[in-house]
């Protein structure tokens, strides 16, 4: 039942307060969508491709490969987009290539997009790893640093220059990682000529996954009207059974606009409306967005239709635009001991993932994504962490719809070298957080930002670095908690005081005390007690696990067998169950599936800590976890009585 009095107080406070989200970046990054006024054209498929194998990897720029067709400057091969290029051919040089690769494709742009000056045409790349430069018909249109977030450029005027010709899109992508990239890395030249040929170099990295590269997500052309909805931000709240959606809309390309906002329920029925670029929508008898297994109707989404009219003069419309944003109404709060969704304690029983599969590498693949969701639901997973970089937006949209809760992690993984704590690295890290929050701020499934994984948080510069990073992220989004994932001991950790939730990884009886499962109860409880005593924050076990080579058996268990993986998980679970009613709020297994890493003596064709193989077949641990997660769902997921 709604309480009009208290609601209006809430509403007034909300509307008067400064909107919680600040946007330091120019412009928005709305997911491209079709509407009566917008069109989308996918450029996925086969592109021409060449790796620049010249000694300095610079021939492409010296010879300006972007000025002509790629076939005119040398040999090309066919390369699928989206996909990592590494595992597509039989050539180990391409698998392990470091430097610039070149992609090119010609596309016919619909005649109306060219003739209609009121149409804005945008070229968008979902993600390309790591540094990209884009040309259209030989003219540079944009460049972008960072491997997991989208970038785009308006190309309307360019394509109108030569309206009858196909439009040639060239994208050069460089996967080199340096001390200032995210993730960081170093290039090391081997100068001993008795051991290495001239110019021999290697890419050193401090993270445990293959540095897949190429165009990983869709390349699109899409249109908007010239005067268009550029960005939308929503924040939601509720009191009793009345919800409130606060929104802010920005329009680009002209003044004199009218904005009409309409909220509809899942069945398309009218719920509320408003006008203007910011405001609030009151939702009577609100249906909250609930996580999977916490409610019989999880992932409830309203639709917020933003309709924009640009006027030539009063009453005469020049242009219209419509963008529809899915909106889940929910709140997130953190106390000293609990993680609350809609004011109810939420317990994470979930997984860590990778965007990783055979052949495609990190390339976007619908069959894989849908299979993974089916496996997660079979397991009884209610959450995952986007270890160790932002995942495709389509994945977050699925999480919104299915009620899968997400800890959204940026690519701050492997920050181990003290030189990667300097200002240049920090500045870039702040920009990446800007881009991440701008892209993902409206997803109800995203409940927390993770600004890094296992940085060298014991190093003295870590304190300033993480204080700055976490405060910046909180200023960008005042509605979600912020964490970074740590492996340091509580008493060495310099950034710990700034996190809202302690996310701690540990590998007892694996990397330390190998084979000694019996030490887990003592070491794990001590670890938790130390963290809690020091920071008084809820704790999530954000990684734990053991490698298991599928089909390897031994009893009593030995490392690398399926029995050892099971026994290790079971020992961890016993401790989790003791701490669960105190301050312990979640467990995320490392890892959902086996995944590829660089070659090394610690990895047998990749990391085998998956409870599924890389081909998504279950190991024994998948059945153990499934039993546990469904039990946990029954014990912790029910809506608790008020
Ligand atoms: C953790 C890292 C993760 C690794 C895992 C492992 O966060 O990226 O893959 O160890 O070694 O420390 O399996």
Automatic annotation (TrEMBL):
GO terms for molecular function: beta-glucuronidase activity; carbohydrate binding. GO terms for cellular component: extracellular space; lysosome. One of its GO terms (biological process) is carbohydrate metabolic process. Its EC number is 3.2.1.31. Residues 227-308 form the Glycoside hydrolase family 2 immunoglobulin-like beta-sandwich domain. Its main location: other. It holds the Pfam family Glyco_hydro_2_N. It catalyses: a beta-D-glucuronoside + H2O = D-glucuronate + an alcohol. Inhibited by L-aspartic acid. The keyword Glycoprotein applies. The keyword DNA-binding does not apply. Residues 1-24 form the signal peptide. Belongs to the glycosyl hydrolase 2 family. Homotetramer. Plays an important role in the degradation of dermatan and keratan sulfates. This is Beta-glucuronidase.
């Amino acid at each position: 039942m709604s309480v009009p009095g208290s609601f209006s107080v809430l509403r007034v406070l909300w509307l008067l307060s400064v909107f919680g989200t600040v946007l330091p970046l120019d412009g928005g990054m709305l997911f491209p969508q079709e509407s009566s006024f917008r069109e989308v054209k996918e450029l996925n498929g086969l592109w021409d491709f060449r790796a620049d194998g010249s000694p300095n990897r610079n021939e492409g720029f010296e010879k300006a490969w972007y000025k002509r067709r790629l076939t005119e400057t040398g040999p090309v091969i066919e390369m699928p987009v989206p996909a990592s290029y590494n595992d597509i051919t039989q050539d180990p040089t391409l698998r392990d290539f470091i430097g610039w690769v070149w992609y090119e494709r010609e596309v016919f742009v619909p005649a109306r997009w060219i003739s209609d000056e009121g149409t804005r045409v945008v070229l968008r790349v979902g993600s390309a790893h790591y540094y990209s430069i884009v040309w259209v018909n030989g003219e540079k249109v944009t460049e972008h640093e960072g491997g997991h977030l989208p970038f785009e450029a308006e190309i309307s005027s360019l394509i109108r220059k030569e309206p009858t010709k196909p439009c040639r899109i060239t994208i050069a992508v460089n996967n080199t990682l340096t001390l200032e990239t995210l993730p960081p890395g170093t290039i090391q030249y081997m100068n001993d000529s008795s051991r290495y040929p001239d110019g021999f170099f290697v890419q050193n990295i401090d993270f445990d996954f293959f540095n897949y590269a190429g165009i990983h997500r869709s390349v699109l052309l899409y249109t908007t009207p010239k005067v268009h909805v550029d960005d939308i931000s929503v924040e939601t709240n509720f009191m009793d059974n009345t919800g409130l959606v606060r929104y802010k809309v920005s329009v680009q390309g002209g003044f004199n606009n009218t904005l009409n906002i309409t909220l509809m329920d899942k069945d398309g029925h009218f719920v509320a409306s408003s006008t203007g670029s910011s405001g609030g929508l009151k939702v009577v008898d609100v249906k909250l967005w609930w996580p999977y297994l916490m409610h019989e109707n999880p992932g409830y989404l309203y639709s917020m239709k933003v309709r924009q009219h640009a006027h030539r003069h009063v009453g005469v419309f020049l242009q219209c635009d419509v963008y529809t944003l899915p909106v889940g109404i929910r709140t997130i709060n953190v106390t000293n001991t609990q993680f609350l969704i809609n004011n109810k304690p939420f317990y994470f029983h979930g997984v860590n993932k990778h965007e990783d599969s055979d052949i495609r590498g990190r390339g976007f693949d619908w069959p894989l994504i849908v299979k993974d969701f089916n496996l997660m639901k079979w397991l009884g997973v209610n959450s995952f962490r986007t270890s160790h970089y932002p995942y495709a937006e389509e994945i977050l949209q699925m999480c919104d719809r299915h009620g899968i809760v997400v800890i959204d992690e940026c690519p701050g993984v492997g920050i181990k070298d003290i030189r990667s704590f300097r200002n240049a690295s920090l500045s870039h890290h702040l920009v990446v957080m800007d881009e991440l929050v701008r892209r993902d701020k409206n997803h109800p499934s995203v409940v927390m930002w993770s600004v890094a994984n296992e940085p060298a948080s014991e190093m003295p510069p870590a304190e300033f670095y993480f204080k700055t990073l976490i405060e910046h992220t909180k200023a960008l989004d005042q509605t979600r908690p912020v964490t970074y994932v740590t492996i340091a001991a509580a008493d060495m950790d310099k950034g710990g005081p700034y996190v809202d939730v302690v996310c701690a990884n540990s590998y007892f009886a694996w990397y330390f005390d190998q084979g000694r499962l019996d030490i887990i109860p003592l070491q794990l409880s001590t670890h938790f007690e130390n963290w809690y005593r020091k920071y008084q924050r809820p704790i999530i076990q954000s990684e734990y696990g053991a490698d298991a080579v599928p089909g390897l058996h031994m009893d009593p268990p030995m490392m690398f067998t399926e029995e050892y993986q099971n026994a290790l998980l079971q020992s961890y679970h016993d401790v989790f169950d003791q701490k669960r009613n105190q301050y312990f709020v979640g467990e995320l297994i490392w890892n959902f599936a086996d995944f590829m890493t660089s070659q090394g003596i610690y990895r047998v064709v990749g990391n085998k800590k998956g409870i599924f193989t890389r081909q998504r077949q279950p190991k024994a641990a998948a059945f153990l976890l499934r039993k546990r997660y469904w039990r946990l769902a029954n014990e912790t997921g029910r809506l608790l009585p008020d």
